[in-house]
Amino acid sequence: MTRNEKIIDRPTRRGLLAAIAATAAAALFPKRAPATPRTSVLRRIARVGAEASEVGARYLRAEPTEADLAALEAKLVERLRAARGAIPTRLDEATRADFRRGDVVVVDGWVVSRTEARVCAVAHLLESGESG
Amino acid sequence: MHGARPSASRIELRALRVRVARFTRSDARLAEPHVLELPDRPAICTAESIAVGTSPHEAGAKGDGLLLLDIADLEPGAEVRASVCIVGAGAAGITLARTLASRGVEVALLESGGLDPEPEIQALHGGEASGAAYPPLHAMRLRYLGGTTNHWEGQSALLDPEDFALRAWVPDSGWPIPYREYLRYLDEARAVCELGSGSFDYSEVARQRTLAPFPPLAGLEPVVLRFSPPTRFGRRYRAELESHARIRCVLHATCLRLAASENGGSVVRADAGSLDGRRIRVVADRYVLAAGAIENARLLLLSTRPSGVALGNDHGLVGRYFMEHPYVELRYTVLSDDRTNAYFVEPSVGDGADRLRRDARLVPDARASMRILNHSFYFARLRQMPPNVTLGDRLVRLWDKARDKLFRDEGPPNHFVLRLRLEHAPHADSRVVLADDEDAFGLRRARVEFRFGELERRTIVAVQERVALALGEAGLGRVRLDVDEDARGWIERIGWQWHHMGGTRMHEDPRRGVVDANARVHGTSNLYVAGSSIFPTSGHANPTLSLVALTLRLADRLGTEARGATA
C-alpha cells in the first residue's frame, strides 16, 4: 500500500475527504476580487464552500439517492484509489476517467464528471449536516 | 435598321485586326457580330487598337475581337452566335468561359449586371424564403461581373470522400462521380482561386509552420480552412474577358428564358434583356446555366417546353434538394489555459496566402457510428465573461495544470462559443419554387422553402456531447449544454453561411437528379449546369473552390464536344 493510499484509508478518511472537498471547492470557486493575502484564502474557502455546496445541492436534487455521506465517501475513495499519485493528481485522473467512460452528470447545464459532482455533494452535506 | 443613326459609321472589325476593344456603356454599338457602328463623334481608331467612350482602355490583348460589351452596344434584337452560351459571369461562368476560350471554343457570356453593383439589377434577385428565418435573397447573390465572388470572404475547404459516398443513414446521399474525379481538378481550381499550394492536412501544416499540434482529443480531428485573397473573379479576370478573341461577354444582359426546340429535347436560343427594354438572343450549340443555385433552378422553371413542362423538370425535381450551410452557436465552452489548447484558443493564424483557420470535427468513424452529418466547428472567444455561467470556469481552473493560477484574481474570459457549421442533408422538400410575385421583367420570382430534419438535430446534439466528453477527458475544458436532447427550437437560432447548393442536383437517374454525371440536363442534348446547384450533398466545405473544380471538369467535357463538332 502506498503512502497516498494510506491517507485515504479508514481512520482518517472522513477528515481527509472533508479536506479534499474544501481544497477542491476552494479551487473551484476562488474569489476574484483582490484581498489581503493571509486572510483572503480563508475567506475564500469560507465563501466558495457555500458555492460548492450549492452545486452539490443541485446535484443531489437531481440524484437524491446520492445524498448519503457515507456512501459518497466510499464511492469517492474507490475512485481515488484507482488513480495514482498525490490527491490532486488522483482527482484529475478520476475526473478524466469519468469523461472517458461517459460517467458524467449535467449540473446547471454543465457537463460535469461524476467525481466532480460528488466532491461538491460532500461539501454540501458537510456544510448542511443533512447526512452522515 | 440604322435609320435612327444616319451619321454613324460602320467598321468591319476583323478587317482591322483590332487588339483592344472596350465599349462598355459607350456610344459604340455592334450592328453585327463583327461590325462596329460608331456614332458621329470623335473616336480613336487605328489598326492596333480601338477605344471609345469616356475612359479609353487598352489591355494586353492577344488577338482581334470585340469582347466586353454592354447590351446597349448591340442592335436591339441582335442575335449573338457562339459555340457555347454561358449564363452568368460569376466564379463558374468566368472559369468556364476562360477555359473554353483557351481551348479554341467561341463563347458568349451573359451577365445580368454591369461592372459595378446597381440596386435595380440587384433587386432582380429578390424573392421569398420560408421554413426558417432567412436574410433577404437580393442581398445574398451579387449581379455584376464576378457575381457573388464580389463579396466572397475567400474561405475555402475541401469536400470529403464521405460527401461523395453513399451513406446509409443519409437518404439521397452519394455523387455519381468518384472523389478522385474531383481531386483531379483541384490543383487547377486552387490556381484559379489563387489559393496557393499550402496543405489542407493540419499535421503537415503544423510541422512546416511550427504550429501547436492538434490537441489529444478522443474522437476529434482537425479541419483546415484556407483563404483566397479573395479572388474577385470580375476584377481578376476582366482583362482576359476583354481581350480574349473567343469570349464575347455581354453586360446588362439578363437571361430571361431558354427557348426549347419543338420536341423539347434541346435548347435553340437564350433570350436576354435589359431593364430599359433592350432584347437580344444568343444562338449557340450548347448552353450552360451558371447563374447561382437559386437562379439556375428558377431559369429552368421559367423555361417551359412546348409541352408545358419546364426544361429538366420531367420528374418534378428542378429546385428540389436545395441546401445551405446552417450554423448554430452553442454557449458555452470553457477552455483551460493549457498551451495544448492553442489550436482552439487562436483558431485563425497567419495572413495573406498563409492565412488559415483551424476547425475541428468528429472523426469519420464517429460520424458513421453516430449516424450524423458532416460538420466542422471552432471556438470563438467571448469578449466578456457571461453572467451566471461560472461553474465551468471554476471546474476548468481546478484541473488546470497551472495550479498556481487557481487563485489569480484576474484573467481574460476563457469562455467560448462553439460555432458549429452543419452539412444540410438533402431533403427533397427543401426547394426553390416560383413565387407569385414578379420581377421587373414580369418573371416570377424565386421562393426558397427550407426543410430540415432529424439528421441536423442529431448532429448538433452529438457534436455538443462528444466535445464535452473529449475536452473533459483531456482535462482541457468544460462544455455547457446549450441544446437538450430534443434540440427543439434550434432552427429559430440558426445562422447561415450564405452558401447555396443543390436545386439541380446531379444523378445518373433522371428520376433522382436534374443533371447527369456530366452536368447535362436530363432530357436535353445541349443544356448544362455549372456551379454548386449540381451538388447532390453539401458537406461542410465552402463551395466556391469545389464548384470551380467541377466547372473545370465540365469545361473538359464541353471543350471535347465542341472540338468534335467542329471537326
Short description:
The complex is a heterodimer of chains A (132) and B (567). Chain A is mainly alpha-helical and 132 residues long.
Give descriptors for this structure.
heterodimer, A: 132 residues, mainly alpha, two-stranded antiparallel ribbon, globular, B: 567 residues, alpha+beta, FAD/NAD(P)-binding domain, five-stranded antiparallel beta sheet, disordered N terminus
Mean pLDDT of chain A: 68
Annotation field: number of helices of chain B: 15
- Helix content percent band of chain B: 10-25%
β-strand percent of chain A reads 5-15%
Oligomer: heterodimer
Mean pLDDT of chain B: 86
| Poorly predicted spans of chain B | 1-8, 14-26, 40-66, 399-412
Radius of gyration of chain A: 14 Å
Domain count of chain A? 1
Helix content of chain A: over 70%
Low-confidence stretches of chain A: 1-12, 28-48
What's the number of structural domains of chain B? Answer: 3
Bulk shape of chain A:
globular
Number of helices of chain A: 6
Q: From the 3D coordinates, which CATH architecture of the largest domain in chain B would you assign? A: 3-Layer(bba) Sandwich
**CATH superfamily caption of the largest domain in chain B:** FAD/NAD(P)-binding domain
The biggest sheet of chain A amounts to: 2 strands, antiparallel
Q: Count every beta strand of chain A, where a strand is a DSSP E run of 2 or more residues.
A: 2
Return the structural class of chain A. Answer: mainly alpha
Walkthrough of the structure:
The complex is a heterodimer of chains A (132) and B (567). Chain A has 132 residues and is mainly alpha-helical. Chain A has helices at residues 3-7, 10-28, 37-62, 69-82, 87-101, 114-128; strands spanning 104-107, 110-113. Chain A has one domain (3-31, 40-128). In chain A, 71% of the residues lie in helices and 6% in strands. In chain A, strands 1-2 form a two-stranded antiparallel sheet. In chain A, a hairpin with a 2-residue loop joins strand 1 and strand 2. In chain A, helix 2 (10-28) crosses helix 6, helix 4 packs across helix 5 (87-101) and helix 4 (69-82) packs antiparallel against helix 6 (114-128). Chain A is globular. Chain A starts with a helix and ends with a helix. The model of chain A is unreliable at 1-12 and 28-48 (pLDDT under 50). In chain B, strand 13 (254-260) and strand 14 (267-273) form a beta hairpin. Chain B has 15 helices and 25 strands. In chain B, the strands form 6 sheets. In chain B, strands 6, 7, 8, 12, 13, 14, 15 and 25 form an 8-stranded mixed sheet that branches. In chain B, strands 16, 19, 20, 23 and 24 form a 5-stranded antiparallel sheet that branches. Chain B has a 4-stranded antiparallel sheet with strand order 10-11-18-17. Chain B has 567 residues and is of the alpha+beta class. Mean pLDDT of chain B is 86; it is low at 1-8, 14-26, 40-66 and 399-412. Chain B has helices spanning 13-16, 91-102, 119-122, 137-140, 161-164, 179-184, 186-192, 202-209, 233-243, 293-302, 342-345, 364-369, 391-399, 454-474, 543-566; strands at 9-12, 29-32, 35-38, 44-45, 50-51, 68-70, 79-87, 107-110, 127-130, 155-156, 220-227, 247-251, 254-260, 267-273, 279-289, 326-335, 348-349, 356-362, 375-381, 415-422, 431-438, 444-449, 477-479, 495-496, 527-529. Chain B folds into 3 domains: 1-66, no CATH class; 67-160 and 172-191 and 228-316 and 502-567, FAD/NAD(P)-binding domain, CATH 3.50.50.60; 194-225 and 326-422 and 453-496, no CATH class. At the A-B interface, helix 2, helix 3, helix 5, strand 1 and strand 2 of A face helix 13 and helix 14 of B.
